[in-house]
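My main concern about presentation is that the manuscript never shows what a single data entry looks like. For the editor and my fellow referees, an illustration may be useful. For illustration, here is how one protein appears when written out as sequence plus structure tokens:

***
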Amino acid sequence: MAFLEFSGLSKSYPGVRAMTDVSFAVPAGQVHGLMGENGAGKSTLIRILSGDTKADEGTIHVGGAQQQFSSARDAIDAGVVVVHQELQLVPNLSVAENLRLGRFPARAGVVDFRALYETVGATLREIGVEIDPRAKVANLSIGERQMVEIAKAVMTDARVIALDEPTSSLSSRESEILFRLIGRLRNAGKVILYVSHRLDEIFRLCDGCTVLRDGKLAAHHPTMEGVTRERLVSEMVGREISDIWGWRPRDAGSARLSVEGLSGARVPEPQSFQARAGEILGFFGLVGAGRSELMRLVYGADAAKAGHVRVDGEALSPVTPRRAIRAGLVLCPEDRKADGIVQGRSVAENIAISSRRHHSPFGMVRPGREAETADRFIASLRIRTPSRRQDIVNLSGGNQQKVILARWLSEPHVKVLIVDEPTRGIDVGAKSEIYEILYALAEKGIAVVVVSSELPEVIGICDRVLVMCERRIAAEFNRAELSEAVLLAAALPDRATPRFAKKA
């Protein structure tokens, strides 16, 4: 018998029909996958389930009772908790304070912090999360924050838990902890709605799955028996994708980016590498290995203590984001919500924010020119938006990523493009499109640096890979040497044996 049931859900936003007549059911004690391309309607369904928004039509039943959630509190009171892809923690509070927010233990009206930390610490240890309950959330990595969000959902004793791309920021070890926890929750009779673009996880964890496409129900599989990867991909995108990676050989030219002895507060040892014209250079490493921190030093987002960055032989001294952009070195950051998009602004403004200086004589903005540029990239990158005037926060993660790419492609002289986690939380169809963009840029002679925690992605699209471990470059491999076993072995700390990188 179904414990969670959606019946005829429909939802419209200004200028777009987000969901039309979606119905499916999930029994108790099942992990159920929810799949679809970015913009397929998954996020809309999750927002309706969480109480963040109301459906225009349709109903939700939980445990046989019809529910109409007007807020997240209504959903939680009904036993429904959603862990969103965009984390919802208070950065200036401790882990324990976030986990028990509104439910602090107290004596005579005074918060009992000792009891708070002991209780939360015991719960974290029980579910296998090794995080200090006293640590401030602002000081945690993105992966650690994700684990805190998941722990928060578990501690509410919810009957329905929806996880939206839960492993997108997790290391392999953290993912395994999550998978074991999901197994325990399933055995306890919970309903787990598991939203992911990672097919391996769907087949490993899920008892059944539902696929949405263009806001409608494309397929519902009560069980995974007889369901293949190819079938799911076809149901998601409405077409066959035989090779998601689409790698093709290129001849690498001379060094476009040269990093020499670069170090900073979060990358203490000097690091050196080169990225060549026409090359896709990968950076792989476990969470906390220092990949993103090194890229922020290269771009000048964080101050370097020592070292040099050169673009086509020209030193950027000292390197700053402004100086980097003017030299043709640009960065698509790991956290696109916090560091990439400008929230509250339109798609057109987000595309034009950097290149505006090229066509704004005397500081006067030319709306017509910006509209023309935005429309060109919306079409060429297939950005799914009702119009260039749409607020970027209303776009899916994949389309937000394309907008950030469009921002840098609108710069006339890009020489080095760094993309940090370019396809995090992005569906298989959009991934294929973004890879095609990266290949096209490399074929124009741009040096493309891809930072990724996804092994198949690194192996699938990169010409050469540098592996980071403990905040330093530990190894280098050419394409012929790439395998999951080789890269993982290089990424794991080895206290007994010193590790040295081959010269780039």
User: Anything to note?
Assistant: The CA atoms of residues 37 and 427 lie 5 Å apart. The longest helix spans residues 172-187. The first strand starts at residue 2 and ends at 13. The chain has a mean pLDDT of 88.
